[in-house]
Amino acid sequence: MDLLSKRFLHTHMRFANRRLILEKIIESEEISRVELHASTGLTKATVSAIVAELIEDKLVLELGTGNTLRGRKPIRLKFAEHAGIAAGLTIETDEIECVITDLYGKVLISETVEISDFSTKNVLKVIRVRLKELISQCAPVHYSFVGIGCAIPGIVDNKGIIIHAPYIEWQKVDFSNMLSAITGVPVFCDNVANMLAVAEIMHHPEEKAAICLRIRSGIRAGIIINGEIFTGGDGFAGEVGHMPVEANGVLCRCGQYGCWETRASELALMKTLSDSGVTVHKKNDPPIAVTEPVRKIFYDYAGWLASGLISLINMFNPGHITINSPLISRNDIIIRLLNEELQNRLHTQSLSSCRLELSKAPKNASSIGAAIIAADKFISRMSLSRHNHKDA
Amino acid sequence: MDLLSKRFLHTHMRFANRRLILEKIIESEEISRVELHASTGLTKATVSAIVAELIEDKLVLELGTGNTLRGRKPIRLKFAEHAGIAAGLTIETDEIECVITDLYGKVLISETVEISDFSTKNVLKVIRVRLKELISQCAPVHYSFVGIGCAIPGIVDNKGIIIHAPYIEWQKVDFSNMLSAITGVPVFCDNVANMLAVAEIMHHPEEKAAICLRIRSGIRAGIIINGEIFTGGDGFAGEVGHMPVEANGVLCRCGQYGCWETRASELALMKTLSDSGVTVHKKNDPPIAVTEPVRKIFYDYAGWLASGLISLINMFNPGHITINSPLISRNDIIIRLLNEELQNRLHTQSLSSCRLELSKAPKNASSIGAAIIAADKFISRMSLSRHNHKDA
DNA sequence: GCAATTAGTTTAGATTGTAAACTAATTACA
DNA sequence: TGTAATTAGTTTACAATCTAAACTAATTGC
After folding, report:
1. B392 pLDDT exceeds 50?
2. For residues A165 and A153, what is the distance between their CA atoms, to the nearest angstrom?
3. Residues 50-69 of A with CB within 7 A of strand D
4. What SS3 state is found at A330?
5. What kind and span of H or E run contains B176?
6. Is the pLDDT of residue A84 over 50?
7. Cβ distance A240 to A308 under 8 Å?
8. Of A16, B43, B229, B319, which one has the fewest beta carbons inside 10 Å?
9. Average of pLDDT values for B272-284?
10. Residue whose C-alpha is closest to residue A88's, from A142, A134, A25
C-alpha cells in the first residue's frame, strides 16, 4: 500500500490510480472503462486517460465490444498476461524444479533437473543454462523475461539472503543478487512454505489472515496477513514445526524436545507406521489400507496435528488454513479425524470461522507461487513508473 | 496507511501530507518548518501551507525561536497535546479504572471506582457520571473531550462488539455504540491485552512485530504488526493461553487439557506455591523468599513459560516481547531462569533478535493504552478532514 | 552598517483530477 | 428508413495541490 516514499506528490497520485485500475483489470477477466469508472470511483475521463497509458505500455488489451441491451457497446479490456514471462524455481534436495509462466502465473513450460552438486556455482550455472533453454522455447513477447522467483528449502531473511538451508548446505548466501547478476533480471528468494502460501492464497485473496501449512519431513507455515506474506522482524516467522506440544517429548533435530514436527510431520507418521510393520513408500503411494491398528495410528496422529493447529487458530484467528501434505492428501481419513478432534477440543468462535482445507495446489505449486511473486513485482514496477514511451 | 477510499484525489494527497507532517511534529518534541521540509521531502512552500492549516486548527503551536549559529532563527513548532482530552477505561472484575489524558496519553486525572453491579445499564451509568465529574475537573480545552477507549476483560470482535466477557457476564454487547450514544463521543473497545500492547509499543514503535503478554489468571497476547494491533480475521487473535503445551495435561477452564495457561498463568504458579505451603497474597506482596523448594517451583514455572514463548518466537519472529505480570515482576529470579531456559532450548536467529523484557508500564497501563487509541483516532480524523475553519 | 547566512513566504507553472458537455454507437419502434 | 432513447467513451474548462525559484525576514560577524 505504501508507495515509493511517505510523501505524496502528483506522480504518486497517478501511480496509485494506475495501480488501482490495473489491479481491477487483472482481477476481473474482462472489464470496460465504464465498469472501471463505477468500481473505482474515478471519473470516466480519468479512467480513459489511464487506460490509454496502460494500452500504450502494452499492459492492457482491447478485445472488441461486449454486450448491453441498449446503447453503445462497451469495449472489453483485459490484462495482457502474455506481455511478459516469469520464472519460478524450487530448489529441492535432489533436483531443481523450473516453471515458466505468463504474468497470471499460468505455466507455459516446466522442467525438473536432477542435480547432485549443490555448490552455489553449479546451481547458478544449471539455472542459467536451463532457463535460457526454456525461455528460447517460448514465443517472444513485448517485455520478454521479467523476473525470477525462487523457493528455498531453508530460512531466508527479509533481505532475501539465504541464512541457512541445511539440505543443500548453504549458509548466508546472497543468492538473489548472484542470480540477478548472471540473468540480468530481478530475483526474489523466499522460503518454500511462503511461496506455497502465495500460490494457495490466490483462492482466497480477501482474507485478513490465512495460513498455508507445508508438512513434509518438517512443518513450516506460510502466513499471509492482509494479502502479504508475513515474515516477522527478520524474515524468520512461520517456523511452526518447533512449537513445543509435549513435555519431555521426543528429541527433535533442532535440539529441543517435544517439537510439533516430532509428532505431526510426515516423517513422524511414516516412522510410526513402519514401526508397526506398515510399509510406506515415499512417493506416489496409494492410500494406506485402514486396518484397525492403522486407524489407531491415524487417530493419534490427527490428535498431534490438532495440537499445533489449535495454537495457530488461537494465535492468528485465520479465515483459512490450507494443509499441503501429499501423505495426508492421499489418506483422507486423516483430515476427517482431524476435524473431529478439533471440534471436540476447541470450542471457540475462532474455530467456526476458520475453514480448514487440504491443498488443491498442483505438484509444482511452490514454483508457481515463486513465479507469481516475480510477476507481481514486475506489475508493481510497471504501475509505479512508466516504461519507455518514446513518443509524446 | 490506506485512507478513506482506494482511489486518490487531490484531497487525499493533501490529507496524506497533512498526516505526515502532523506525525513528524508529534513524534519530535520540537521541530521547525525547515526541519520538516528536510525530513519529509516536501518543499518549504508546502510545509508552510500545511503548518498554517494545522496552527489554524489548533493542532500545532508556535513556541518562539530556536537556535542556529548564523542566520534567521527557526520558529519552534510543537504538537498541541493540550488541545483535547481523551478518556481510557479498564473494566476489571470488581472495579472500573478511569484515566483522563492529554493527546499524548499523559495522565491528567485518574480514578478507580469499585462496583459490583456489572449490568450494562449500571456500568454505562457509572461511567457517564464518573467521566463527567473527572472532565469537569480538567481545564477547558479547544477540542474538549475527543473520545473514549475501553479495555475489556474478554473477547472483542473486529467491529468493537464484546462477544464474550465471562467475569462480567456480557455476551454480544455492542458496548461501543451504547457508550457513544450517551456520551456523544466516539468509543473504541478492545481486549485488555491489546490495549496494554498499545501502551507498551510506544517504547518501540518501529518494530515489524512485537508482542505484549498479559499474564494474570489467564494469558493473552496483544500482537502488534507494522505498528497496528493485529486482530486476525474476526478480532480473536492473541488467545495464546490455550496453546496446547502438554499432552494429557491439566484440565483448563476452556475444556481442553494441557493449555499453556494451566501451567504458565499467575494462578497456576500461585496454586503450585500454596500447594507446597508457601503463602502468596494476590496483591502488593513482597518478593517470595527463595528457599530451595521455591527455587525449584520457579525453575519449573520458567520452563513452562518458555514453552509458550518458544512457540510465539518461532511463529512471529518478533523484535520485542514484553511480559506484563505483577507476580513475575515482583520475583525477578523468574525472568532470569526464563532467559536461561530459552538460551538452552532455542538455538535460532529468531531468539537472538528478540528482546524479552518485563513490562515497565505503570499500574493503569491498559487504560492509558485505551486513551491513546482514542486520541490517535481523533488525530486521524483531524488529519483526514479539516475541522471548522469558518473564515477563508 | 553591511555581507553572509539561514528561515520562511510568495509567485508562476506543471500535473492531475473533476464535472459537465460533447461525440459515438447501438436498439427500439413509428 | 429515420428518429428518439440509451449507453460508452472523449473533450473541455476549471480547481486543487504540488514544485521550483525568486523573494522577504531575521540574525550574526566583522
Report:
1. no
2. 6
3. 51-52, 68-69
4. helix
5. helix B175-183
6. yes
7. yes
8. B43
9. 82
10. A134
